[in-house]
Amino acid sequence: MNFLTQKIIFPSVASSNEDGLLAIGGDLSVDRLMLAYRSGIFPWYSAGEPILWWSPNPRFVLFPNKLKVSKSMKKLLRNEAFTVTFNQHFEEVISNCSQSKRKGQEGTWITNEMKAAYIELHTLGYAKSVEVWNGDNLVGGLYGIDLGTVFCGESMFSLETNASKFGFIKWVQHLEKEKYHLIDCQVHSEHLESLGAEMLTRDVFISHLTNRQ
């Protein structure tokens, strides 16, 4: 296993284990986090654990032009069932994501340390959020890291049925208009697969990061 030091450097992603675990330790500084995302690596750990860094192979991604929208969601979009804003209430979004219960998980992986780190990334323009509203109520949203033409999704939450899906679809459509290459979904989920996400080998995924400008 690779153990990180204070030096801001990561080992080759090829040295990650079969589950995608690459390294342990380090910190959540802006420079280290941005180097991680640009290298196809992300942190994921629980409170009380050391920082764990992952680079799974294959990688779960969505190409914006392959987005699948069901008939029922098309109807909600036509009827403007929710209002969507971009990057207006980041702290509220990440706080809601940290409180969302996940199937098969006892707690949250979005620790206070993680929240503080991503809020700092937001103030510097690297982390972006999507907010979904029903009237004046924030009922869904998502956030992630914006690498220019690759968006690395981190987490989403929904307080009303289809709220987060509505916001995700709107965001993907926006990214397609802005000529983004792909959206990193990290690991497989049936929810995102239903929206068109697919597996990609790590080498091909990283080639998109390398050519993201």
Structural write-up:
There is one protein chain. The chain folds into two domains: 2-58, Alpha-Beta Plaits (2-Layer Sandwich), CATH 3.30.70; 60-210, Leucyl/phenylalanyl-tRNA-protein transferase, C-terminal domain (Aminopeptidase, 3-Layer(aba) Sandwich). It is built from seven helices and eleven strands. It has helices at residues 30-38, 71-78, 90-99, 112-123, 163-177, 190-193, 202-210, and strands at residues 2-4, 21-25, 42-43, 52-54, 59-62, 83-86, 127-134, 137-146, 150-158, 182-186, 198-200. A hairpin with a 2-residue loop joins strand 7 (127-134) and strand 8. Helix 3 (90-99) packs antiparallel against helix 4 (112-123). The longest helix has 15 residues, at 163-177. It starts with a strand and ends with a helix. The model is unreliable at 103-107 (pLDDT under 50).
Q: What are the main properties of this structure?
A:
213 residues, Alpha-Beta Plaits, 2 domains, seven-stranded mixed β-sheet, alpha+beta, globular, Aminopeptidase, four-stranded mixed β-sheet
